[in-house]
Amino acid sequence: MAAPNKGRRQAGSPGRPGRTLALFLIAMVALTGGMFWSGHVTPRLGIDLAGGTSITLQAKNTPGKPNAINKTNMDTAVSIIERRVNGLGVSEAEVQTQGSSNIIVNIPKGTNEKQARDQVGTTAQLYFRPVLTVAAGGPAAPQPSTSGSPSGSPSGSPSSSAGTPSSDQSAGNPDASTSPSSSSTSQGRAVTDALKKDTTPSPGSSSSGKPGSSEPPAPSATPSADPATAALEKKFTDLDCTDQAARTKANQGATPKDTIVACGTNSGGEWEKYILGPAELEGTDVDDAKGVLDPQRGMWIVTMDFSSGGTKKFQSITGKLSQQQPPMNQFAIVLDGNVVSAPSVSQTLGGSAEISGSFTQQSAQDLANILSYGALPLSFQEQSVTTVTAALGGEQLQAGLIAGAIGLALVVIYLVAYYRGLAGIAILSLGASGIMTYTIMSLLGPGIGFALNLPAVCGAIVAIGITADSFIVYFERIRDEIREGRTLRPAVERAWPRARRTILVSDFVSFLAAAVLFLVTVGKVQGFAFTLGLTTLLDVVVVFFFTKPVMTILARTKFFASGHPWSGLDPKRLGAKPPLRRSRRVSAPTDPKEA
User: Fold this and answer.
1) Which of 274, 355, 415, 513 has the greatest number of beta carbons closer than 10 A?
2) Residues in contact with 592: Cβ distance below 8 Å, sequence separation at least 6, in sequence order
3) Distance between CA 173 and CA 118 in Å, rounded?
């Protein structure tokens, strides 16, 4: 027979409670220290407790879609806006419809209001359009110009990246006829010439009208007879991109199929104006977007991955643009009517692209967040911004805290009256759970935007009962073992496996209920579910890594081991049977004849 493995710890043995307890205390101290180090020593409060800002948005019809304002589009807009500003759903931002065309967004105090308002109001209509011509962003001067490229116009030869294109690659000047000029004559000719060119040539074809010629066609000396082209020429020539109102109206009402004028800034921060062809890709073709730091250039960029359909479109348009001469080998990334990047292309590119420019970390991540969640189906105008007070919520919070204190006091009185000395262990465990809950809530505020609202406070109060129930299960298992005639130290270890199973099953059911509630609800109810789930997980941690080790250590003390009447483990009061070792020495006769 093989000898038993002496190095293997038997089930029900005490193990090393001191080490487990030390690890728990180190973790608790680290969390508390992290809370003070972060400077957020109190949980972030929701709008009902701290007040905040309420934004009213009014929907506007999309050009070409007069009946776009309907319940489906409004519900879609609410869902997108809520994901933008609410993150994981626990930052307590409220988004709801009001009437048939208004959306109300309530943002709690402590949130970056400007950032949230940008997230809310940005429609995020993203298009990729080919560049037909580009010029300096100021209005054209009335006098003619004899120079091919006046001062202030974009300069520098275009370059292209073998991988993802960059907006730092500014458009160059192919010749005097198509270079940006500050004169109305040269700009008008550039517009006419650009609109006459075929922007999607087949391989082998030239941009001029002569076969085999690589030279661009000469610009028309007279204005275009086409009224639409003439109107576009005048709009482009008169456009002043330094004027915010002019930038807003530049392509207002345009559809994706229209040729438009738009404004943007180059890598030097100077305004430029563009004529852009019909959109080749839309924001719906973007599968994912991320704001990342480019280590080579030391700048923040937004990377985009296209869907399978978007990848094919992107390969097609970059293949066509790579055969063009500057600036018509550029494609403009247009967000809500403004050019945020206009990279040049020299080869066919794959299923990803990037937007680069003067991004900060926050602005890059904000733009990626907007692109990832998708564009709003409607345009919205900010109607009003009001401040919400927290007077009513403060009164409710005070009443809730009083109710919680009364409930906690009743639990403590019950524990002391029924469990006596064991109540001290339960109170210490409740205190440890409270400290862990408070510090984690404080850290989750800046971490994921968690905001403590009234339902969340209710969830924390309910958790008091869940945590106390776990202690009671363990204490009752210990008492059952003592009633069977075992001494305290073996009773503590033998009771643990049975109590552990019951605690895990109970907490699993509570956590499952909290998870389902979190997934199927919105708004404040999610705060209740999140807090309930968090405290349920902390209950398991506290019972396993604090209550059990403390009970094992105290079982070695004389006060508990001797069964002191005030320990809560007095064998006489529990009606304990005679010790098991004595019952083994007495063997009852099984045969009546032997008796």
Assistant:
1) 274
2) none
3) 36
